[in-house]
Structure formats: structure tokens, C-alpha cells
């Protein structure tokens, strides 16, 4: 069961599974969680290790005075058989032993280099330098140069691809511009053709209209003449008939007709003038 | 040795390790020797692993460490002090840097806790090697007379001052440099080891006596441990960059 209590500083947004702080490691009943105990133990162990490791220089002595003394005495005892034999040594030998024991308290000059360390240290450095000269440094440097070269080549390839893309884009743009120009020319041509067609149609329509109008005028004129002729004939007949009734005598038909025609022409002439003709 | 009622180990016992192999011979093996061997093996492993074929495009782990270090030495040491023609010294300078660094850093590695360069042997040997190299480079670059002339009579100095400058340059360039190089490294490592031992002894004694007293000294021990990590890296860098400066001065006296 996850703790329901959010740790200090944790707002309502803290997920139930996220634990931080000590509180989240404690069961609701007050007993610490096993993992929290393990963590505490690990932390204490780490602290102890750091403490021991940190304090270790206190014992980082190569040789103790007591050890040196014991070693010197043991050597003397081994050389002479027993401690009593050592004690019974002549004064000069005892004095030499004392000098050896005092040597345990003396410090060798720390600035004087030790021959064994010069040999081993020098050998180690020579081996290291030989390895670095032969393989270590060139391999790393080669890997670095290869990577630099690869990155440079990739950048060059990217530049080339970019240039290609730009060129393709320019070509597309040129083609697009050409297409637009061509389309514009086509539209202009179509517009010109349409205008021409419109003008042709208009001219033809006007010609047709004029023709129709002329034909209609001719028809009207023809009809008018026909009507006049018909009217003349009718009017002459009516006038003759009327005159015969009025005078009661039959007149010469030809005379009558010439009189009537003359009258009708006079009337027609007056009518035409009256119509603006 | 008793200091303020604390039993302090004799100084030589902090640095002079007994041999456990070939004792009494010139090839005696002690803890110092083992640290130098370990430093060599560690550097070889680092560069051996980093230089394997088919490394990833984005470096990580040992590859990252090795390549960053090489890049750092090239850009911050060689190019700043010698110039492009100093690249031929890169393997030497890289070896020098890592050999000194790994021999120093054992100062704070639990279980070892001893900087091998707090012994005078190898710092002196490396300093003499550097002395030989920069002198040979100087003679090869400028000729014997030219090298001596440029070293002892620096151009641009008023002639009257050569009375003072020439002896100083003679002692400085041909006598003091190897000693200053060696003693700087050695003394820093000795001082660091003494500091750590002092605070460790103090912490142990105070912990045994009062418990509470160690609350002051133990944090100092931790802080000093961090400080000594910095010193270890810094001393390796200083030794390497001074070597490059000396070589650069021999190759290009005009600088």
C-alpha cells in the first residue's frame, strides 16, 4: 500500500508511486518500510567506508619504529643464536647494534631518490611512452581524425544536397515562371480570339440586321405600292359607281378612269407628302 | 613522534615503503613501484580501449576521457606554447600527463592512499628527461651556438644588462629548471600527503577520545581529499605545460 501522505514540499501533483524523503518510507502504522531500512543501512555502510577510507592515511606508514626495532633485534638474535648471546656481545658489536637500532628512529633524507624507484619508475614510463608512441596515441588520434573527417564529409554532403535542392528549386521556379508566362500568353491569345470572335459576330449580326431591315423596307415598299394599286383600283371602281349614281348617267368609262387616276395620283402625291415621303 | 599528545608517525615512515620483493637489491619492489606500474597499466588500458576500431560517433566512457584529454593537451598545452609543429611531442606530453596524474591521484584512492610522486625518484627522473629533451630540441632547432646565444643572451635586452642576465639565464635554464620542475611536483605531493595524514590522525584520535571533536576534523579531511584531487590534476598539468613551454622556448627562441 502506498503512503497517502505526500512528503514535505510535494503538492497534490506527486504521483502515488513516487517516494521522496523519509516520511514516504514509513508505513502508515509507523513501521519503516523494508526498502527504507535497506537504504539507511547502505547509507550508513557507505559513510563508514568513507570514514575508514578517509582515516586510513593514519595507518599509511610503510614501516613503524617498533617494527624496525623488532626486526633489528630479531636479526641479531638469529645471527647470534639467542638474546643472551646478543647481550654478551663485545662492546663494539653492541655499539654497532645500537647504531642499527637508532637507525630505526632516523629518517632517510626524503629528497634523495631511491635507486629501485628510479629503475622501476623509469622503466614504467619508458614502456608507457613506447606504447603511446606506437599504438595508444595514434589510435585515439586516428579515431578522432576519422570522426572529424566523417563529420566534415557529412557536412559537405549536406552542403551538396542543399545546393542540389536549391538548384532543383530554382529550376522548378523557372519552370513555374515559364508556365505562368505561357498560361498568360494563352489567356491573352484566347482573350484576343474571343474579342475577334465577338467583333466578327457583332459585325455579322449588324450586317444581318441591316439586310433584314433593308429587306423589310423593300417588302414594306412593295406592299405599299401594291396597296396603292389595289386601293386605286378599288377607289376608281367605287368612284365610278358613285358618280354614276349621282349623275344618273353613264359616263364614258375611259374618261372616268383617267379622271379618277388623275385624282388618285393627286391624292397619293398629297398622302406621300403628308407622310414625309 | 608526539605532537600535541597525538602519536604522529615519523615522516619517513609516511613515505618510505618497505620492499616486499627483491629486498636489498636495486630492483626492490615496494608500494611506490607498484603505483607507478599501475599508473602505466591504467594509461595503457585507457588509450588501448579508447583507440579500439569502430568507436561510436558520439564518444562516451573511456573514449570520451581519452579524446577530451588529447584534445585538451593539444589545444591548451601544445598549441598555446609550441605551436603546430609541437604536435610531434603529443605522445610524449600525453604520456607524461597521464603518468603523473595517475601516480598522483593514488593519494586519495582508498586502500592506496599514497602519491607515488611524493618520492623524489621519478619526478627527478622525468625532470632530467625533460631537461635533455628541450636542450636537444634547442640544439637541433638553432644549432649549438645559436641555442647557447639565444639562451644566454636573450634578444631585446640592453647589452649592459647581460652582465646580470646571462649568469641568471645560465643558472635558470641549465641548472635550476630540472630541479624546480621536480621539486614543485614532489613538494606538492609531500605536502598533500602530510595534510591528509594529519587530518586523518587527528580525526582518528579525536574520535577515539571524544567522538564530538572529530566533527570538526573529519569534514576537513573530506574537504582536503577533494582539494588534493584538484592538486593532483593541477600538478600533472603544470609539469606537462612547463615541459611544453621549455620545448617551445628551445624551438622558437623569438617567442
Could you describe the 3D structure shown?
The complex is a heterodimer of chains A (about 280) and B (about 260). By secondary structure, chain A is mainly α. Among the domains of chain A are: about 35 residues, no CATH class; about 40 residues, no CATH class. Helices cover about 75% and strands about 0% of the residues of chain A. Chain A contains six helices and no strands. Chain A is rod-shaped. The two termini of chain A are about 125 Å apart. The N terminus of chain A is likely disordered. Chain B is about 70% helix and about 0% strand. In chain B, helix 2 packs across helix 4. Chain B starts with a strand and ends with a helix. A two-stranded antiparallel ribbon of chain B has the order 1-2. Chain B is globular and about 70 Å long. Chain B has one domain. Chain B has eight helices and two strands. With about 260 residues, chain B is an all-alpha fold. Classes of the chains: A mainly alpha (about 280), B mainly alpha (about 260).
What is the H/E string of chain B? EEHHHHHHHH
> Percentage of helical residues of chain B?
over 70%
Query: Greatest interface and its residue counts?
Result: A-B, 54 and 76 residues
Tell me the number of strands of chain B.
2
What's the pLDDT, averaged over the residues of chain A?
A: 77
Let me know the number of strands of chain A.
0
If you compute it from the alpha carbons, what radius of gyration of chain B comes out, rounded to the nearest whole angstrom? 22 Å
Strand count, sense and barrel status of the largest sheet of chain A are: none
Please count the helical segments of chain B: 8
Which key phrases capture this entry?
heterodimer, A: 277 residues, mainly alpha, B: 255 residues, 8 helices
Brief summary of the model shown:
Chain A is an all-alpha fold and 277 residues long. Chain A has helices at residues 34-55, 65-80, 83-87, 91-103, 115-247, 253-274. Chain B has a two-stranded antiparallel ribbon with strand order 1-2.
